[in-house]
Amino acid sequence: MQIAQRMRPLQANVFADMDRAKAAARAAGKSIIDLSLGSSDLPTPPHVLDAIAAALPDPSTHGYCLFSGTQDFRQAAARWYTDKFGVSVNPETEVLLLIGSQEGTAHLPLAILNPGDFALLMDPGYPSHAGGVYLANGQIYPMPLLAENGFLPRLEDIPGAVLEQSRLMVLSYPHNPTTAMASLAFWREAVAFCQRHNLVLAHDFPYADLTFTGKPAISALQADPNKTCTIEFFSMSKSYSMGGFRVAYAIGNAELITALRQVKASVDFNQYPGIQRGAIAALSGPQDTVHQMIATFRQRRDTAIAALERVGWAVPVPEATMYIWARLPERFADCSEAFCLRLVEQTGVALAPGAGFGKAGEGYVRIALVHPPEVLEQAIAKIADFLG
Ligand SMILES: Cc1ncc(COP(=O)(O)O)c(C=O)c1O
Questions:
Q1: What is the model's pLDDT at position 163?
Q2: Predicted pLDDT at 273
Q3: pLDDT at residue 17 in the model
Q4: Ranges in the chain, pLDDT < 50
Q5: Which residue has the CA at smallest separation from atom 6 of ligand 1?
Q6: Rounded CA gap, 276 and 70, in Å?
Q7: Which of 191, 306, 330, 336 is least surrounded, with the fewest CB atoms within 10 Å of its CB?
Q8: Is 308 helix (H, G, I), strand (E, B) or coil?
Q9: Rounded CA gap, 119 and 48, in Å?
């Protein structure tokens, strides 16, 4: 048997090491506080669950769901988008249902890259962005995101020779893991850059709502309202706590939507229509649970930041996302993975090592605020003992 060479970069993975370390700590009797995964612990809103439950006994939801069957969902997503961001969207040609935004961003390179083409990715960045490029036999040019640049890429630093072979730039703000936000001015610069260099701009946007600024984050399509080169990926996982249901959507340039749809047509038959009905209820129904979700993460953020400060670990206050991106003390500056492995082994507290998100993530850890405030305080007390 032969496993394809393109699988090689997918086989070694910092997060798989962390999973093994968590399992070993659990087996050794440690009680685990897992702050390493960005999986929301909040329940899905009841009206969404009701819509899904009501669909279950309906036989019309039990068969394959073809593209025509996703029309109600596409219309709900288009309305939701236009109400929030003020850019009009054609639900027939510019919206595509996805089985999670990860599925969409990982399949997109297959639709765009020829073997050997470059994709410009954020470093640190979400691992499936790189995974999709590897599966498409593309090459990755990592754009380092540094604190001194507000964790935004310096587009002018990308070498001309790389640009000539590049077809795709992937950005994602509010950013996992650094929590950085991007302004409309930055998006205008990014869109102009992609237009100039004939690049597809993919914006992974699962934290659209999860900001603490009182308003949603900026959509890349606000800087490209004619959808010349941009495709944006939205997720139900964070705004509506539906991560396990695997439902998301892409909005953007019609040619890109068609190409991604063609890739998916070879792969899947769309998400279960009952879950689509739940997602429609979420997008079209009352949004108070979204505001509650934001308030919950804000309170957790404030508690965790205050607890970290009390133990002498000052970190920037995130304006968005469900994470804290914390620079490690100097003695751990180049060993975030070793730090996290030892921390979980000795204390049961699991954090995500910055190196797992890319080279430029080294020296940091990501703390996911996926437990109530009192648990976060316990975890930080244990981290303080470990550091002390
Ligand atoms: C940047 C980013 N993209 C995608 C995802 C996954 O979203 P989905 O559940 O829609 O696949 C996450 C989840 O943490 C994420 O942080």
A1: 98
A2: 98
A3: 86
A4: none
A5: 102
A6: 8
A7: 330
A8: helix
A9: 37
Please give the pLDDT value at position 369: 98
What pLDDT does residue 13 have? 78
Say how far apart CA 206 and CA 233 lie, in whole Å.
7
Structure tokens that stand for 317 in this block: 């206050």
**Separation CA 98–CA 100 (nearest Å):** 5
Q: What order of strands is seen across the sheet that includes strand 118-123?
A: 95-98, 248-252, 230-235, 200-204, 166-171, 118-123, 139-144
Task: Read off the pLDDT of residues 82-104 as tens digits, 9 standing for 90 and up.
Answer: 999 999 999 999 999 999 999 99
DSSP H or E run through 122: strand 118-123
- Position 333 scores a pLDDT of 86
How many Å apart are CA 311 and CA 302, to the nearest integer? 14
Helix crossing, 273-284 with 71-85: angle to 10°?
Answer: 20
Closest ligand 1 atom number to CA of residue 243 = 9
pLDDT score at 12: 76
User: What pLDDT is attached to residue 103?
Assistant: 97
Are the CB atoms for 127 and 140 separated by under 8 Å? no
Q: Which domains does the chain have, with CATH numbers?
A: 5-43+288-387 (3.90.1150.10), 61-284 (3.40.640.10)
Q: Which amino acid is at 368?
A: A
Could you tell me if the CB of 178 is within 6 A of ligand 1? no
| Confidence at residue 86, expressed as pLDDT on a 0 to 100 scale | 97
Q: Which of 243, 192, 198, 244 is nearest to 220 (CA)?
A: 192
How many Å apart are CA 40 and CA 133, to the nearest integer? Answer: 27
Distance between CA atoms of residues 156 and 110, nearest Å: 27
- Which of 100, 97, 110, 108 is closest to 67 using CA atoms? 97
Atom of ligand 1 nearest to the CA of 172: 1
Structure tokens that stand for 186 in this block: 């930055």
Pairing of strands 248-252, 139-144: unpaired
Q: 38 CB less than 6 Å from ligand 1? A: yes
What token pair was written down for 288? 């108070």
Residue nearest to atom 16 of ligand 1 (CA): 176
